[in-house]
Amino acid sequence: MSEATLDGRGRLTLPKEVRERYGERYHIVQLHDGIKLIPIEDDPLDALRSEFADVEKSAEELRQDARDAVLDEAGR
């Protein structure tokens, strides 16, 4: 785990090894007990394409599967 502090202007500087691994742009998510930094890919669409490259179902099939799962969990 790394440590970072805010400067006098409220800026947070991440350690070099963190920036090299995750990049320089982040979404800041506020949680009830802290914050979370989520790296933003240089090209988010490319990141999504590579993440789901092995998915063989269409978007509609995935939606239908999700609907069916929710209905099954709710007891139809």
From TrEMBL:
Annotated SpoVT-AbrB domain residues: 4-45
Gene Ontology MF terms: DNA binding
Protein name: SpoVT-AbrB domain-containing protein
Organism name: Halogranum gelatinilyticum
